[in-house]
From TrEMBL:
Annotated NCBIfam families: PRK09589.1
Tree of life domain: Bacteria
Residues annotated as catalytic: E375 (nucleophile)
Biological process per Gene Ontology, one example term: carbohydrate catabolic process
Protein family membership: Belongs to the glycosyl hydrolase 1 family.
Gene3D superfamilies: Glycosidases (3.20.20.80)
A family per Pfam: Glyco_hydro_1
Molecular function terms from GO: beta-glucosidase activity
Name of this protein: 6-phospho-beta-glucosidase
Organism: Liquorilactobacillus ghanensis DSM 18630
InterPro entries in the cross-refs: GH, GH_1_N_CS, Glyco_hydro_1, Glyco_hydro_1_AS
Length: 476
């Protein structure tokens, strides 16, 4: 008997803005991803003030899935995928975000896509908001600083819940909602919340306020979704990267605990329906006076999620600085140090399969909910040799993580719903805007400069994953 339950959701994950392209097709509006330029390992992506001539905006065309979806879904079916995680581009449905009526052509596109998936028995798994909100909501409303965004998001979610109520069962509200917690860079506040720092702004306060509105919006749509279809499974979505203490020094241990609290309080709110005590104390000390009403608190309590979806790429090591204060916001990048016991990817991400088992245990202990690994994978350079792509490094990465996942299920009793490796097909990197940071099991001929035929090719990892799925994870 195999380790994984019957019906385990083996799949693949992407996000609309990173692979669809067709940025102006079918009445689509401009999203925040459409104003981000290409960067690389050393050069951050720029967020431009609108679309500027002569800039390279990699998400505009991406891999043009919009016009290749039939061919690509056929490949997913050949791989044996049981599910496919993508997002619905908000700007296809509400191009500016504040319209009264949805855009029928956008709705039709996702009908076509879901029908195509269901034709092969592939279950769609849908993220409502994955770093691609309407840009208009940034310029006109200040992004998620503004309470009005709750209404716009709820309207969008309600429209798609109703439209796809018989086609989609698995949903997630906000992708990696906790990315912004560390405010490591401008990127995470912009992609999560459509916030660009204004001069004189207390950006931490804005981050907490925006996060609060997002969690209220999330809790509202959980309730609305369950009314529309009681079978809906609506999850949170976290970026999970456990923090390890740099040494047995209790200061380091406390620091790593703080880092975890500061990163995962979103899950406290979304799973338990209320803010953790330490954070309320922090708000008080900071005299933030956030707009958190009693009605909001009722909504949060009534709108807890059905499961936790999460991404897992890497773990982190944190070190207490000298004269550590009692400030719980311990997420600044300079506290993160290398892990001498583990290798890293070409982009410097620590490779730590056991950390995945740790994450599965930690989340289960803390929230006792079903878990869904909705992103995991290796961003790497691939080379095409005589029409083939040999990617043993990617196979090793995925295999080692699946082994740990199996232990978590078999030995630890973790309730795991599925596993969807990130970037099942090569796509635009969210962090760097690159094409050459490849995650796919399917290769797409396109490079960082935007050149290439867009031709698709199976990598060695394609065949490997096909047999993993066919054996329900036994044949690794
Ligand atoms: P890229 C940072 C840390 C953890 C997850 O990332 C992250 C990021 C963003 O860099 O994002 C998730 O493309 C995200 C995806 C993204 C993927 O990880 O920067 O949900 O949209 O593509 C991989 O290599």
């Amino acid at each position: 008997m195999s380790t994984f339950p019957k019906g385990f959701l083996w799949g693949g994950a992407v996000a609309a803005h990173q692979f669809e392209g067709g940025w102006q097709d079918g009445g689509k509006g401009i999203s925040i991803a459409d104003v981000m330029t290409a960067g690389d390992n050393n050069k951050p992506r720029q967020i431009t003030n609108g679309i500027k001539a002569g800039e390279n905006y990699p998400n505009h065309e991406a891999i043009d899935f919009y016009h290749h979806y039939k061919e690509d879904v056929k490949l997913f079916a050949e791989m044996g995928l049981k599910c496919f995680r993508t997002s619905i581009a908000w700007t296809r449905i509400f191009p500016n975000g504040d319209e009264d009526q949805p855009n029928e052509m956008g709705l039709q596109f996702y009908d076509n896509l879901f029908d195509e998936l269901l034709k092969y028995g592939i279950e769609p798994v849908i993220t409502l908001s994955h770093f691609e909100m309407p840009y208009h909501l940034v310029t006109e409303y200040g992004g998620w600083r503004n309470r009005k965004l709750i209404d716009f998001f709820v309207k969008f979610a309600t429209v798609v819940f109703k439209r796809y109520r018989n086609k989609v069962k698995y949903w997630m509200t906000f992708n990696e909602i906790n990315n912004q917690s560390g405010m490591m860079n401008d990127w995470s506040l912009f992609t999560n919340s459509g916030i660009l720092k204004q001069s004189g702004e207390d950006i931490r306060r804005s981050m907490y306020q925006a996060s609060h509105y997002e969690m209220v919006a999330s809790a509202l749509v959980v309730q609305i979704g369950h009314k529309i279809n009681p079978d809906f499974q609506i999850g949170a979505m976290l970026a999970m990267g456990p923090a390890y203490p740099a040494s047995p020094d209790p200061h380091d241990m406390m620091k790593s605990e703080r880092a975890m609290q500061a990163n995962y309080w979103y899950a406290d709110v979304q799973c338990k329906g209320k803010y953790p005590a330490w954070l309320l104390k922090y708000f008080e000390r900071q005299q933030y006076n956030l707009d958190i009403t009693l009605a909001d608190q009722d909504i949060l309590r009534a709108g807890t999620v059905d499961y936790i979806g999460f991404s897992y790429y890497a773990s982190h090591v944190v070190q207490a600085s000298k004269n550590e204060t009692v400030d719980f916001m311990a997420q600044d990048a300079d506290t993160s140090i290398p892990n001498p016991t583990l290798p890293t990817s070409d982009w410097g991400w620590i490779i730590d399969p056991i950390g995945l088992r740790y994450a599965l245990n930690w989340l289960t202990d803390r929230y006792d909910l079903p878990l869904f690994i909705v992103e995991n994978g290796l961003g790497a350079f691939d080379t095409v040799e005589a029409g083939q792509i040999h990617d043993p490094y990617r196979i090793t990465y995925l295999r080692d993580h699946i082994k740990q996942m199996a232990l978590a299920v078999k030995i630890d009793g973790v309730r795991l719903m599925g596993y969807t490796p990130w970037g099942i097909i090569d796509l635009v990197s969210a962090g760097t805007g690159q094409m050459d940071k490849r995650y796919g099991l399917i290769y797409v001929d396109k490079n960082d400069a935007g050149e290439g035929s867009l031709h698709r090719m199976k990598k060695d990892s394609f065949k490997w994953f096909q047999q993993v799925i066919a054996s329900n994870g036994d044949n690794l």
